[in-house]
C-alpha cells in the first residue's frame, strides 16, 4: 500500500494480513474430552498427577491458540505453537484447496496446499499444508502478491 504525505512524497507501508486457522469440531471434541478426563482424574488423585494432567490440557490450549498465518509483505509467516516460520511468496509455484486429516500446520481438514518452486524452501518435496479459515481470501491475497502462482482446484 502506498500513501502520499503533504509534500507529495510516496511512502510505502507494509501491511500485515492475519488469517486465523480454521478449527474443526473434532479438535474441540478432543480438547473437551481431555479437559473432562483431567477434571475427573484430578478429583481423586495426588497433586502431582493433577498438575501433570493440567499441564497436558495447557499444552493443547497453546497448540490450538498458537496457530495462525500472516502475509507480511513478500513473506508468508506460519505460526505453530507461537513460533514463526517464514516462506517467500515469490517462490510459491502452486496453491490448491485440499481436504485431509494428516498432521500439518492446521487444525482443520479443509486446507490449502502450497508447493514451492525451490525444494530448499521447505527442505522437502512435500507441499506445505495449512488451514486458514478464509481459504479463498488467503489464496486471493497470495495471488495478488505473486501473479505467477497457479491456482488448482
Please describe what this structure looks like.
The protein is an alpha+beta fold. The chain has helices at residues 25-43, 47-65, 135-145, and strands at residues 2-4, 10-12, 16-20, 68-72, 75-80, 83-88, 92-99, 110-116, 128-130, 150-152. It has 3 helices and 10 strands. The strands form 3 sheets. A 4-stranded antiparallel sheet has the order 3-4-5-6, with helices on one face. A hairpin with a 5-residue loop joins strand 1 and strand 2 (10-12). The protein is elongated and about 60 Å long. The mean pLDDT is 84.
Explain the layout of strands and helices.
Layout: E1 2-4, E2 10-12, E3 16-20, H1 25-43, H2 47-65, E4 68-72, E5 75-80, E6 83-88, E7 92-99, E8 110-116, E9 128-130, H3 135-145, E10 150-152
Parallel strand pairs: 7-10
Antiparallel strand pairs: 1-2, 3-4, 4-5, 5-6, 7-8, 8-9
Helix pairs in contact: 1-2
